[in-house]
Each structure stands twice: as C-alpha cells, then as structure tokens.
Amino acid sequence: MRPHVETIQEKDYIWHAAELVGGEGRASERRLSVDEEDGSSSIRIDFHTAWGRGPGIHHADTEYYVLDGEMHYGDRVIGKGGYVHAPKGVPAEAIRFSEGARILHYREYGDAGFDAVDSTAAPRWEGAREDITVHDSAAMDWLAVPNAGPMPGLFVKYLHIDPVSGFYTRLVYAQEGWADHRLAHHPCYEEAYTTEGKMSYNFGDLDPGTYFFRPARVKHGHFVAMEGGTTWLMRSDGELENWYTQNEWVRWGGDAVNYSPEGGRMTWSYSSHDMAGGQSWRSDEDLRVLHTALNFQKEQGAPDSDYVQHGTGPDRSLVAMAKAYDLARLGQGHGDHDHDHGDGGEAHSHAHDRPHTHDALGWPAPNTLEQPDERTDEHRHNWGAGRPWKRGVDKPLPPIISTLPVRSRSLGRWDGDGM
C-alpha cells in the first residue's frame, strides 16, 4: 500500500533517473508516491532530451499526462493536456516526448516493465481488457459535476473510467469561490496533483506542483478555491462516495515518561480546538464562502450541521469528556453485571442496569462500524485499503484519523484544523 501523503510540494522531492524501460533519451523523475508491494507509482517526469520507444506492452495499467511540451503517440501529436491510458497487457503504439516536456506518469497494479513488440498486432496478454485511450484534454469540454457537494462550481473532464473496477482518472476544476465546509472520507483512495490555481486547505494550501495521496477512509477538508479557481488531475481506485463529517474534534494524551522538559512525567493532551490557538486562521472571506456553502446545502434540504471553525466556540472534546466522567460517576464505574461487595464482613449482591458509557454518549462500539469481511478478506492487514461499497447494501465505513501524514518540509502548513 502507498503511504498517506498530504499536501507535499513536488519541489521537496529529489530527482532520480527516470525508470522508463527500453526508451532512448534522458529523463529524470520525482516519485510522488510508490507502492512497494505491487509496484504502483505516481511520478513526475522531466525530459532533458527528446525521448521515445517503439511499440510494446506495459506490465502495469499505465497513464501519461502532458503538463508542458509535446507527446507523439503513433501518428498523433498532442501538446499540453495530452493523455494516454495503456492497459496492462495491451500492445501500445510507439510513444515519444519532446525535449523539455514535463509529464505526470502513473503505473497501477504493476511495475515499470515493458516488452517491445513489432506492432500493435502482437497478441494481448491473457486476461487483458480494454483498448488504448488517447485524449487531447485541452479540446474537451468541462462538464458540471452532477453532485458537486455543498455548492455549484465544480467541473470535470473524464479521461478514463475502468468499466469493471470503477477506477477513474479525471481533471477537476473548482471555480473561484467554490468551497466545501465539511470533512469527507471515501471507500476508495484519492490522489491529486495541482496543475493550476490555488486552494486554501486545512493541511496546507494547494498550489501548482502540490500533490496528495490519501488511502481509503482518511478524513480530509475543508476547501476554499482562491482567485482564478483551481485545477487538479485526480485519480481514485473506485467510485468516490463522499461520507461527510462536521464539527469534528480529536483529543488524545498520555504520560510522557522520559521526554518532558523537566525530565520526568507529564500529561500531554491536545485537541484540534487547542491547535487552532483559540482563534480562526481563516480569513473573513474564507469564512464567508464556507458559510455560503453551508447555506446552499440547507436550501437544498440536505442533512448538515452548522459550520463552527476550530478555535471558536466550546471545545466539544472537553464537553464529551465531562459527559463521560459524569456518567462514570453516576454508574460508580460499573457496567451491566452482577457482583458482590464486601460490607461489614457480609457479602451482598446487586445488579446494575445503567448503560455502558459509550452507549449512553451515542458512541457505537467500534466493531459495529466494520464491513462484515474486514477482518477476514485479503486486505485485513491494512485498515487503509479500499473496499467496494454499494449504496443501500453496505454500511458507510468510519474514517481514519491521520494527524501527521507524510508532508512537505518547506511549503506545507499544519494548523491542527484538518483532523
């Protein structure tokens, strides 16, 4: 599985010699994220000379997207916005890139292997499906997203959709002022590279060259598209169902046994409310747009909660802790069970019928939130793996809280508001 990478700027990655088997020319790559288990990779490549290779079969589902320069696929020449999807095991035409070209390159479910063939008439691998997809995305129309979330202003160009798995690659444009005031998580992974514009975001601003990869169920948000709007190339390994969270809070703590400033023990506990510093880091314009998104959602009659910026209002984590403490005191620390108390040498028995604390607070037991096969299927070792999900059949899966993902050293920002 790939690690959670959140708002890392590609300039913080080092360059490697590009792993492009069987090609002629020089190129370098920045490895945005890599799955060392199955070879899947998301890569930024710069071509220092003209580069090319003849027809052949890729060992992985492979995609090329041109950020700058020219791509030649067979007899077709495409500039900025050119896109090719070559399915695993399907013969592809010769491909070439101009000197100075900059591209995004993706390999899924396989490594960089490439078998040269004489022509695309060569036999496919057994089990290979689909055909080669080629687009000039600059010539495609933007389509309004039918379910754009809290407000209109989100548009998409679909580059490729796998008819079996639902895996899809698309360009997404959020017009200036588009916002989502809620956190979301999904049953599939989600990754994006910002190609144009800027978006204000809790884990760090998204500007050109910013990249993220989120395993399934990692919670993220909120978003505000800045001047001129924002464009990403986005990929997901399944249908992107949105499960929203509002007015979230996190608090954790423990005993620092040997690393407190005094060299002794201390209790350490922060919440996202604490990290915001008691005030909102959002600008007045950000807050106006976020409340506009909330009001639109209410006008549509969709379920929602009022938007409360972290650092303002009551700290809900402390409120929940106080409720749990009161319930524990009322229940004298007991659950539903019979037991004996020693009293003046005489034992007596009684039953408590008070509910468990998490039930009384409305907190479900964790094992009730799992899909039936989560502890037994092939992904049981990895909680961040996606699971196929069908509306009305499977229950939504709970989010994973990732407070310290891999992130940019120099250009990232962490305000404690993204959890």
Topology:
Elements (H helix, E strand, L loop, with lengths): L4 E5 L6 E2 L9 E8 L6 E7 L3 E3 L2 E3 L2 E8 L2 E3 L2 E3 L3 E5 L4 E2 L2 E3 L4 E7 L5 E3 L16 E4 L6 E2 L9 E8 L6 E7 L4 E2 L2 E3 L4 E12 L8 E5 L8 E14 L6 E3 L5 E5 L11 E5 H4 L8 H16 L16 H15 L7 E6 L2 E6 L5 H4 L59
Antiparallel strand pairs: 1-22, 2-3, 3-4, 4-13, 5-12, 6-11, 6-14, 7-10, 7-13, 8-9, 8-12, 10-15, 16-17, 17-18, 18-23, 19-23, 20-24, 21-22, 21-23, 25-26, 27-28
Pfam families: DUF4437
Protein name: DUF4437 domain-containing protein
InterPro entries: DUF4437, RmlC-like_jellyroll, RmlC_Cupin_sf
Sum up the overall morphology in one term.
globular
Q: How big is the Rg? A: 26 Å
Mean pLDDT: 85
Helix fraction, binned, reads: under 10%
The name CATH uses for the topology of the domain at 5-139 is: Jelly Rolls
Classified by CATH, the class of the domain at 5-139 is Mainly Beta
Number of contiguous helices: 4
Instruction: Give the biggest beta sheet.
Output: 8 strands, antiparallel
Unreliable stretches: 334-352, 415-419
Could you tell me the strand content as a percent range? Answer: 25-35%
Class inferred from helices and paired strands: mainly beta
CATH superfamily of the domain at 5-139: Jelly Rolls
For the record, give the distance between the C-alpha atoms at the N and C termini, rounded to a whole number. 22 Å
- How many DSSP E strands? 28
CATH architecture of the domain at 5-139: Sandwich
